[in-house]
Amino acid sequence: MVLQERSVSSLKKDSQTLDTTIKTRTKEITKEVTSLVNSIEKREKEAFVVRVGITDPNGKIITKELDIRDPNLTTENKKIAEQAIYEREQIKIDRELTKALKEFDSTQEKILQNKIFDEAVRLELNQLSTLSGNEIRAIALENPGATPNQLEDIRRQRLKEKIAENSVRINELNSLQLENRVNALNQNGQLSQGKDGPIAQTVKSTFEFFQKIDIEAEIADIKPESKKAIAREALLHIKEYKSADQFANDTQSALCNVISAWEAGILANRSEDKVNRNFAEFYKEQVLAGNIKKDTYGKDTVGVFYNSDKPYLEPTKILSDKIDFSTDDGKASAINELNSTSARVAQIYLDYPGGKKGEHFVIAYKNAAGDWIIKDHNENGKPSWKNGGKLVKAIEDGKIADIRLVE
User: Fold this and answer.
1) Can you tell me the distance from the alpha carbon of 231 to that of 185, in angstroms, rounded to the nearest whole number?
2) Which of 181-195, 208-222, 365-379, 389-403 has the lowest mean pLDDT?
3) What pLDDT sits at residue 361?
4) Contacting residues for 5 by C-beta, under 8 A, at least 6 apart
5) DSSP 3-state assignment of 294?
6) Exposed e or buried b for every residue in 39-73, given b needs 16+ CB within 10 A?
7) Kindly report the CA angle at 357 between 351 and 360, in degrees rounded to 5?
8) Cis bond leading into 57, ω under 30°?
9) Sequence-ordered alpha helix ranges (H) in 74-147
10) Which of 71-85, 177-191, 271-285, 336-350 ranks highest by mean pLDDT?
11) Fewest Cβ atoms nearer than 10 Å: which of 83, 123, 207, 286?
């Protein structure tokens, strides 16, 4: 028994040491990448001076420092300097980016949930889908007699060709970045519903705010009147609660539509003025805008949440408007939509028993392999058909009531 306790203690100590090492290394890599980005941006702005070998009037080759900002610089020497700057900077940037990205590749599994992963992807995406200052300078060097408008047309065409050439890798990086953000949103079950759970506590934190507001002043600018009436009814209902606990308990159980709407909005990169990154603030804004209503959940639980037929973001394509998910033709049409859409994120209405009536809202996203993956915020990371399972399989099995593509 003593030996077992020592073994457990040793394992805990080793685990803590490993965790500290990973965190320390992650901080180091973050610092290195930040420094790299700063140095690249600085060189892009300041790379005007270069030492080159040129021929003097006597035909002798000499080394001279040239500044392309010098108004007295000859046209020939300016071209030589620009070409030298381009070649020098391109070599440095390629070398440093390759080194940094190799570092990320070797530690990807350890830092997947860290912001540094997003930074690495952002760097590579930027390199693959935009023209750098050096590439723009190269176009000018290659087309010495072109007008500004002609150069702009050439740049557009060159960028189009570059993106097409790198389309597979760009798609893969976008998918990896999306998957990383999906996992980060609900890390450790931070969006789980349930009495006294994380979401209940979040909703509870808004109670005091709602109790203090002047309802008519808050909703004065809402239009049309029908939407203002929804906001007024919801706010009056919240004010009737005697405690924050009662308000949170009645509301959290039916918040899956609000939670998945918030997740989908962030993943689809909606601006912060449309989808606040703080869930409590998002909830308050949606109530005050008349987008969240007083409604009944189950037999007799009345709370303030999206009702199930509420479209939540624009533009959104609601497939159930034209598709019956209970039929074979409808299922085939839905799968075809998933395969052809440019959207990468969707809100999914799950239909557990297949009775053509949804029971729970979750999200789905398109991964690097092109598969749509379901992610349920209530599952705490446990794998199942609705948490890590394929959406197409769920459609075929009759477990989907609706799909709302965030386009």
Assistant:
1) 28
2) 181-195
3) 87
4) none
5) strand
6) ebeebeeebeebebeeeeeeeeeeeeebebeeeee
7) 50
8) no
9) 75-111, 115-129, 133-142
10) 336-350
11) 83
Q: What angle do CA 223, 294, 386 make, to 5 degrees?
A: 110
Q: Cβ of 367: how many Cβ atoms within 10 Å?
A: 17
Residue 233 burial (C-beta neighbours within 10 Å; 0-12, 13-18, 19+): middle
As given in the structure block, the two tokens for residue 327 are 């039929």
Mean pLDDT of 119-130: 83
Query: Is the pLDDT score of 250 beyond 50?
Result: yes
Q: State the pTM of this model.
A: 0.63
> Could you report the per-residue pLDDT of 328-346, keeping only the tens digit for each?
999 999 999 999 998 999 9
Q: Cβ–Cβ contacts within 10 Å for residue 370, how many? A: 10
| Euclidean distance between CA atoms 265 and 262, whole angstroms | 5
Contacts of 370 (CB under 8 A, 6+ apart): none
CA distances from 282 to 203, 306, 363 (A): 11, 13, 17
